[in-house]
Amino acid sequence: MSRKLGATTQKILLLLAGGMALGISRSPRQQFRIAKKINQAWREINRKKLQDSIGNLYKSRMIEMKENKDGVIEMTLTDKGKKVVFLYNFEQMKISKMKIWDKKWRIITFDIPERFKKARNALRDKLRELGFAKYQKSVFIYPYECKNEIDFVIEFFNLRPYVRYIEAQNCDDELNFKKYFELL
Q1: CA distances (Å), 13 to each of 30, 34, 89, 95, 149, in order?
Q2: DSSP H/E element including 76
Q3: Of 8, 23, 57, 70, which has fewest CB within 10 angstroms of its CB?
Q4: Measured between alpha carbons, how far is 50 from 59 in angstroms, rounded to an integer?
Q5: Domain of 76?
Q6: Is residue 46 situated within a structural domain?
Q7: pLDDT tens, N- to C-terminus, the chain (184 residues)
């Protein structure tokens, strides 16, 4: 996706998605943080590029625009725009490492039917890209909290029935994984 859309266009889509996040956030503190970041990011965009990108997004049907009675133009993401944001988030995904390890292992297991071979291979590739270590052919391990990210990946590949997320206090090959993840 990043090759098809310019940086300004990507930023506009993500800012509109941020507006959706603001709308569903329950915490006033989180709403304030989101609103502050959105406002700052809008101001940093070159006005000419902003106008051109908004026009292109409208033409490509990734956003809808309507003018309110008070003259304010309201922009919203269409389903097509939401899919593009979803894909962009998937491509940019990273898992944050905790400052202090909680001594839990996150284990991802899967038994995906052969008819979904491409999705299974893509899942393996994504787990490796995110930094997971291979435990067995269909088992990967990671030392940091990653449930939300894994749920996102599972939904992206539509593999919910075949993938399990486990948190464990220890594993029988723990010393090797502590070395691998530099936890010693």
Answers
A1: 20, 15, 11, 22, 20
A2: strand 73-77
A3: 70
A4: 14
A5: 7-91
A6: yes
A7: 434 566 677 677 766 766 655 555 566 776 677 677 666 767 777 778 878 878 888 888 888 888 888 887 788 888 887 777 766 667 777 888 888 999 999 999 999 999 999 999 999 999 999 999 999 999 999 999 998 788 878 877 889 899 999 999 999 999 999 999 999 8
